[in-house]
Here is the input.
Amino acid sequence: MTTSHNLEHKSYSQEALNAFEDMHRSFDAYRQANDERLSQIEDRKSVDNLTIEKIDRIDQSLNEAKRRLDDVVLANTRPRLGSETKQDDYRQREHKTAFRSYMRSGETQGLKSLEEKTMSATSGPDGGYLVPIPAETEILRRLAVISPIRSIATVQQISTASLRKAFSYAGPSAGWVAEADPRPQTTNQQIADMTFPAMELYAMPAATQTLLDDAVVDIEQWIASEVETVFAEQEGAAFVNGTGINKPNGFLNYPKIDMSTTKWGSLNYVATGTDGAFNATLPSDIMFDLIYALRAGYRQNARFVMNRKTQAVIRKFKSTTGEYLWEPPTNIGGQATFMNFPLVEAEDMPDVAVGSYSIAFGDFQRGYVVVDRIGIRVLRDPYSAKPYVLFYTTKRVGGGVQDFDAIKLLKFAAS
Here is the structure.
């Protein structure tokens, strides 16, 4: 392990350290093998098949080490649910007790009594009962860890059916004037109404009554662990490719236009110049074009978004001075970088193909908004799958692009 690997590992297990070291060893071997490939191309204009196979094996090993590291980091950062704290007020503790009773035995009187006290109309026997607030908060935190787009977007909580925002795409004229100078009449603003509805996302974990009767089992912990990955996978797909019909509007679902013009409601793209591939001669040059297609104010917090297969392609790119442009994380829990910008892996991004938009670059915190309607509900169903008890768990979530200047796409096409 080289000293340049900024290891902040005191809170991580030996398994995490081993995965981190394996990833850096694999990348060192990858660089040597790829340099050998480039040398063969330069010397004899061809590459030995054994060298190609070697690079593919190392690439798979590198990806596997990164997966193991991601899994360990996720387990390490996953918060614990269900335990009462001094910060929980009496009503929260009362809600927890009533919710656990409902989950274990189907007893609803405690939750109904709480609803009567709060005059709540947001839950009930037909739509399920709200999970305790601390549990809901931690479930959302877990989703932020494992849902790639949620982790980099703006997340807005709402208590209504949708988030509405006014967006000025042709603002009033502005300028500098002296203190006593007259202020010219400004032109009228052109304001668009942007609406982000929250759609229903559900999961239906099952449990045996024996599990539910076991007092050692933490019910809130169990329900969270059962639904978090399913929710995160569904969200991840929707935030990228969602149609906006009964699901969030993914950023790749919006109209796309080239950089020669801009139009509110559309995302700009930069074309690679080659159908389904990077340019063969100087493949990394187009990435500079993509970076500088984004205005300076957005580049400060910008990052690349792509899937693992695309990342394997750009991992070979080098600068004119011979340094690799892709670098592994410098510490456990960190992100890989490309051209010194963080790189986020989103497996729902398309593979490189003719006309595909396989790489996005931008400030997603300003560009994309995730809308969470407050309240995760659970409906207990002991009848539909006897002897198992089903828990129909729902949350409402939406999403969409809120600033079309903040995200640019790379299109793998001639134009």
